[in-house]
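Progress note, sequence design subtask.
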C-alpha cells in the first residue's frame, strides 16, 4: 500500500483541499493527511454540452476548482501551496449529468430518474503541484484522473421518494442522495469504490500520489513528466502562459480482452477529438477544434442515422456481440461498408470493439442499448429516423431556405407543406407513424422531467393539447397518482394511439379525445398542457388557440407550456436555434416572451423551470 510513504512525503508541505465538502474533509483527515481547506470560488458552470462524457466534465471542473485556489493563494493568502487537491462528483444516468438539486422538485426529478436503475458516479480529481521559480514565477503541474462507481437504486415508491426529499438530505449532494446516511437505504448494490460515491476516490488518489512521489527524484514535477495526463504551465507576472503537454489515452492494447468505447479513459481526458472543452485561461494549441468538429458534425450525425436505419443497434445488444461479417449478413450489406460503419460508430462512442475468440467483434455501449435500440423504453430511434428521413433533407436545402425565407418541403419532397401536421397525417400511414414515433421518443425521454418540473399535485384533471401518442400524459399520471389526463389531438393521430400503449403501467387515467384545437371545443380540465405546440404556429394561429383556451379556463386553472426556451439575448441554446432553421412557420421564444404571451390571455404568476433535458417548462395560472 502506498499510503504511508506518500503521507510521509507530504510532511512539511502545504497541502490544500479546494473543497468545502465535509465528506471529503473527513475521508482525507481519517487517513492522517494534514491539509488546509480553502474552498474554491470557481463556479460550477462549465457548459456540459462541450464535453463528450460526464467524467470529462467532472475532471475539468475539479481542475478548474483546484487551479482557482492555487492561483489565488499566493496573492490573497500570501503563501504558495505545495499541492492543491480539487474534486468534483457527478452522477450520470440516461445520458444526463446530475449535480446537486436546486430545490425539492429538482431532487424529485433526479431521484425518480435514478429509481430502479443502475447509474454511474464519477469523481474527477485534480492534483495541482506548485513550484515557486525565480522572479515571482510559479509553475504548476497537473495530474488528473477520475473514478467511476456503479450504483443500483431499488424501485422507489412516491412515498419513499418524498419522505427522503423532506428529510433535507438530498439538497447538497450530487444526484440528490448521500450514500453514507439515509440515502444508503435506497441503494441495492455498489460496484466499485464506495468512497468515490461519498465524494472522494481515496484508493485511486493514493495510487496517483504514489506515482508522483515514489520515484528517485525529489521533484514531483519531474516525476510526473512522463504521465500522459500531465499538464504544465507557468504563471508569469500574474499572466497565465500555457506550456502544457498532454496526450490522449487511446484504444487499449489490442491484445487485451477488455472492451471499451473510444471515449472511456482513466486519467487522461484531454485532447479528445470530437468536442474540446474550453479551458479558461489555457488552451492546448491554436488548432480550431470547435470549427473542425462542426465541420465534421454532419458525418457523425449521418453515421448515427445510417446505423439506426439499418437497425445495427438492434443487432448488437448481447454481450457476445457480432463480427462485421455477421452484421453485414443480417443487414444484407457489404462486409467492407459494414466494417467502416461499425468502426466509425466505435469512434463516436456508440459501439464497443473487442476480441472474441481471436476475431474482432462489436457490441453496443450501455448508452446505445438504452437509447438506440428501437424497442428500448427510452429509445430515440423514432426521432433519429425522422431526422434522417425528413429533417436531413430540409437541411440539405438550407441556403435556399435562408434566401427565400420559407420551408424547403417543395424542393426536398416535391410538394408544398401548408400544414405539416395535416399533410403528414393524411398522406400515408407509414409517414404518420414515423412522425408519431419521433414525437413519442422525445416525449418519453423528456416527459418525466417536465412532469416533475413543478408540483402539480393540486390538479385532478389535465388536458394535453396536441398530446400525440399520450407519452407525456402517461408520464404525468405516473408522477401524480391523483391525476387523469385527456389527450386531445387530430382524429388521424388519435386513431393510431393504440400503437403506443405503455407496458408495465396502468393506462385507465389517460383518455384520448379527437378534435382540432383551432376549431373544436376543448375538453374541460383543471390544467392544460401545451408541449411543443406554440413554437410551430404563426402568431394568428397562436392567437386563436390561446383565446380559445382563455375562454375555456376558469380562474385557478393551470397552463403548463413546455418548449425549448431561448435565453434572453437569443444566443442559444443552439438546439432551439438550429431547429428554427427547418421550421415551417412559427418561432422560438425566450421564457420571458412566453410569460408575456400567456399574460396577454389572462394567464399570470408565471413560474419558469429549465429542466436540462429536451424541454423547459413554464407554469401559469388563469386569473
Ligand atoms: N405534445 C406532443 C409532444 O410534446 O410530444 C406532440 C407535439 S407535436 C410537435 C404537435 C402535435 O400537435 C401533434 O401530435 C399534432 O398532431 C398535434 N396537432 C397539430 N395540429 C393540431 C390541431 N389543429 N388540433 C389538435 N392537435 C393538433
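Output:
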Amino acid at each position: 500500500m502506498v499510503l504511508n510513504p506518500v503521507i510521509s512525503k507530504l510532511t512539511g508541505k502545504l497541502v490544500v483541499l479546494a473543497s468545502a465538502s465535509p465528506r471529503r474533509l473527513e475521508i482525507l483527515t481519517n487517513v492522517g493527511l494534514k491539509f488546509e481547506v480553502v474552498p474554491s470560488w470557481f463556479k460550477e458552470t462549465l457548459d456540459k454540452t462541450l464535453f463528450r462524457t460526464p467524467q470529462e466534465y467532472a475532471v475539468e471542473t475539479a481542475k478548474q476548482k483546484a487551479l482557482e485556489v492555487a492561483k489565488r493563494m499566493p496573492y490573497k493568502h500570501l503563501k504558495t501551496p505545495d499541492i492543491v487537491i480539487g474534486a468534483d462528483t457527478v452522477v450520470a444516468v440516461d445520458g444526463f449529468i446530475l449535480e446537486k438539486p436546486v430545490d425539492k422538485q429538482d431532487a424529485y426529478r433526479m431521484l425518480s430518474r435514478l429509481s430502479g436503475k443502475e447509474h454511474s458516479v464519477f469523481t474527477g480529481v485534480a492534483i495541482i503541484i506548485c513550484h515557486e521559480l525565480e522572479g515571482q514565477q510559479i509553475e504548476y503541474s497537473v495530474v488528473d484522473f477520475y473514478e467511476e462507481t456503479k450504483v443500483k437504486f431499488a424501485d422507489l415508491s412516491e412515498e419513499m421518494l418524498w419522505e427522503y426529499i423532506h428529510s433535507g438530505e438530498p439538497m447538497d449532494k450530487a444526484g440528490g442522495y448521500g450514500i453514507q446516511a439515509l440515502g444508503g437505504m435506497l441503494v441495492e448494490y455498489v460496484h466499485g469504490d464506495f468512497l468515490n460515491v461519498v465524494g472522494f476516490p481515496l484508493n485511486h488518489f493514493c495510487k496517483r500520489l504514489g506515482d508522483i512521489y515514489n520515484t528517485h527524484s525529489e521533484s514531483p514535477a519531474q516525476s510526473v513528466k512522463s504521465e500522459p495526463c500531465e499538464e504544465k504551465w507557468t504563471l508569469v507576472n500574474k499572466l497565465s502562459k500555457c506550456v502544457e503537454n498532454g496526450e490522449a489515452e487511446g484504444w487499449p492494447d489490442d491484445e487485451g480482452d477488455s472492451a471499451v468505447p473510444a471515449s472511456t479513459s482513466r486519467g487522461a481526458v484531454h485532447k479528445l477529438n470530437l468536442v474540446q472543452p474550453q479551458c479558461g485561461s489555457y488552451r492546448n494549441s491554436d488548432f480550431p477544434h470547435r470549427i473542425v468538429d462542426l465541420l465534421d458534425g454532419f458525418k457523425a450525425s449521418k453515421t448515427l442515422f445510417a446505423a439506426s436505419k439499418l437497425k445495427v443497434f438492434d443487432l448488437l445488444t448481447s454481450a457476445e456481440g457480432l463480427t462485421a461479417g455477421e452484421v453485414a449478413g443480417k443487414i444484407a450489406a457489404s462486409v467492407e461498408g459494414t466494417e467502416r460503419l461499425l468502426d466509425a460508430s466505435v469512434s463516436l462512442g456508440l459501439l464497443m470493439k473487442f476480441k472474441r475468440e481471436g476475431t474482432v467483434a462489436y457490441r453496443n455501449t450501455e448508452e446505445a442499448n438504452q437509447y438506440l435500440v428501437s424497442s428500448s423504453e427510452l429509445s430515440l430511434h423514432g426521432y433519429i429516423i425522422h431526422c434522417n428521413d425528413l429533417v436531413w433533407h430540409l437541411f440539405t436545402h438550407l441556403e435556399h431556405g435562408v434566401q427565400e425565407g420559407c420551408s424547403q418541403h417543395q424542393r426536398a419532397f416535391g410538394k408544398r407543406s401548408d400544414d405539416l401536421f395535416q399533410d403528414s397525417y393524411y398522406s400515408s400511414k407509414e409517414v404518420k407513424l414515423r412522425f408519431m414515433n419521433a414525437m413519442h421518443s422525445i416525449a418519453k425521454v423528456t416527459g418525466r422531467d417536465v412532469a416533475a418540473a413543478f408540483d402539480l399535485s393540486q390538479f385532478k384533471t389535465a388536458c394535453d393539447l396536441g398530446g400525440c401518442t399520450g407519452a407525456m400524459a402517461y408520464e404525468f399520471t405516473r408522477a401524480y397518482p391523483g391525476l387523469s389526463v385527456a389527450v386531445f389531438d387530430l382524429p388521424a393521430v388519435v386513431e393510431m394511439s393504440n400503437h403506443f400503449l405503455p407496458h408495465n403501467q396502468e393506462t385507465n387515467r389517460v383518455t384520448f379525445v379527437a378534435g382540432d384545437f383551432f376549431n373544436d371545443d376543448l375538453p374541460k380540465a383543471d390544467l392544460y398542457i401545451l408541449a411543443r405546440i406554440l413554437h410551430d404556429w404563426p402568431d394568428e394561429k397562436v392567437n386563436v388557440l390561446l383565446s380559445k383556451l382563455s375562454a375555456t379556463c376558469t380562474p385557478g386553472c393551470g397552463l403548463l407550456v413546455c418548449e425549448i426556451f431561448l435565453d434572453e439575448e437569443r444566443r442559444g441554446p443552439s438546439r432551439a436555434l438550429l431547429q428554427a432553421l427547418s421550421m415551417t412557420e412559427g418561432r422560438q421564444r425566450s421564457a420571458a416572451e412566453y410569460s408575456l404571451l400567456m399574460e396577454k390571455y389572462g394567464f399570470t404568476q408565471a413560474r419558469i423551470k429549465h429542466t436540462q433535458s429536451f424541454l423547459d417548462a413554464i407554469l401559469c395560472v388563469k386569473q
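The radius of gyration is 27 Å. Work on this subtask will continue into the next period as scheduled.
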